[in-house]
Design a protein that fits this description.
Strand order of the largest sheet: 5-4-6-7-1-8-14-13-9-10
CATH topology of the largest domain: Peroxisomal Thiolase, Chain A, domain 1
Distance between the termini: 19 Å
Structural class: alpha/beta
Largest sheet: 10 strands, mixed
Number of domains: 2
Number of helices: 13
Radius of gyration: 20 Å
CATH class of the largest domain: Alpha Beta
Strand content: 15-25%
Shape: globular
CATH superfamily of the largest domain: Thiolase/Chalcone synthase
CATH architecture of the largest domain: 3-Layer(aba) Sandwich
């Protein structure tokens, strides 16, 4: 079994389109929640989201490639491009042949499908864009990453709602740890700002009409976001041999299913996933100093997650810092676990914990140290990143600081 380290990160988000700007905004407690401009927001009851503004594909891609790439796939490639560049990878034929690419996406290119349906059902057209299928398929992000870098190793996409990219990173970690692949590009991407998707979320009545306030007594729901996060994972010995500088170590992965309700969470499932991540990592509960929470700011999720953390950590809960960065970059659905994993490894690297922004009043049902509103300097040995999805699917990643 190999030790596995993170040697590169890449981010596209409403807080910034690279790791540095994303991290600086998180530490500043900056919220990217603003009025939605991608569509006519008069057609939906909620008006705010965490969109990536002024994104021009031509600034990043050749004109001939853009028609083949939905927005979510563009985000995936850009994040992977940054992660690979930051990791300083020099591709060889053997490395291209054996590197894995594992991505997560909840929606994929659903916006491309919507355009086709509009042509069929609203405009009365008999034909739609011939590239609709390759634009819409959820694995398009992974495939375009492979094509961009000539990667020929194991490649696939996980779709487990809001846990998608966390599951993808966890499975990539297990592949590298076992020796099935010497390196993996893992993460996720999402682009949910299209009318049909927003109307579907509107119908669920879980979207806030103002902003995202995880764990706050005044919380009123989640805020959608978009973007991508990618990590380069490789064996510690491989990274050191090529002169790379690891950021942090990924040491554990746990996953579980509630097996209860399609939308209503239970505390037992998330608690089980956290325990399994600890067991997989070999870490004691007392070694965990920080949890990047799923923290969606819905009434049920925050209360259930707080209960699951207390169930898992017992008295040590009172020594844990727990924050939700969704308060700043929004809930990016299938990309959320990847963006939050990036936040975790940077927290370990820099000894800084990002805050829970927009926090007003403590909720007794969420009795946690939520790092309210301001980043905190803290030397943390290890941390968890929680992702809990509709369908009762739970994924937890464990990271450790490099000593």
């Amino acid at each position: 079994m190999h030790r596995v380290v993170v040697t590169g990160t890449g981010v596209v988000s409403a807080l910034g389109n690279n790791t540095v700007s994303f991290w600086q905004a998180l530490l500043a407690g900056t919220s990217a929640v603003r009025e939605i401009v991608a569509i006519d927001a008069s057609q939906i009851r909620f008006k705010n989201g965490a969109e990536i503004r002024n994104f021009v594909p031509e600034d990043y891609f050749d004109a001939k490639d853009i028609p083949f790439m939905d927005r979510f796939a563009q985000f995936a490639v850009l994040a992977a491009r940054e992660a690979i560049g930051n990791a300083g990878i020099e591709w060889t034929a053997d490395l291209r042949e054996t590197t894995a690419v594992i991505t997560g996406s909840c929606l994929g290119g659903r916006a491309a499908e919507e355009i086709g349906y509009w042509e069929l059902f609203h405009n009365g057209k008999n034909r739609i864009q011939p590239l609709t299928i390759p634009l819409a398929m959820s694995n398009a992000g992974a495939s375009h990453i492979c094509m961009q870098f000539g990667i020929e190793g194991p490649t696939y996409t996980v779709s487990t709602a809001c846990a998608s990219s966390s599951h993808a990173i966890g499975q990539a970690f297990w592949m590298v740890r076992s020796g099935a692949a010497p390196m993996a590009i893992a993460g996720g991407s999402e682009a949910p700002f299209f009318l049909g998707g927003l109307k579907a979320w509107e119908a669920m009545r879980v979207i806030s009409k103002d902003t995202c306030r995880p764990f706050s007594a005044e919380r009123s729901g989640m805020i959608l976001g978009e973007g991508a996060g990618m990590l380069v994972l490789e064996t510690l010995e491989g990274a050191l041999a090529r002169g790379a500088s690891p950021i942090a170590e990924i040491v554990g992965f746990g996953m579980s299913a509630d097996a209860s309700h399609i939308t209503q969470p239970l505390a037992a499932g998330p608690a089980r996933a956290m325990r399994l991540a600890l067991r997989d990592s070999g870490l004691a509960r007392e070694q965990i100093g920080y949890i990047n929470a799923h923290g969606t700011a819905t009434e049920a999720n925050d209360r259930i997650e707080a209960a699951a953390i207390r169930c898992t950590f017992g008295p040590h809960t009172d020594k844990l810092a727990v924050s939700s960065t969704k308060s700043m970059h929004g809930h990016t659905l299938g990309a959320a676990g990847a963006l939050e994993a990036v936040a975790c490894v940077l927290s370990l690297r820099d000894g800084m914990l990002p805050p829970t922004a927009n926090f007003l009043t403590a909720d007794p049902a969420c009795d946690l140290d939520v790092v309210p509103n301001h980043a905190r300097a803290a030397t943390v040995e290890a941390c968890l990143s929680n992702s809990f999805a509709f369908g009762g699917l739970n994924s937890v990643l464990a990271f450790k600081a490099l000593s």
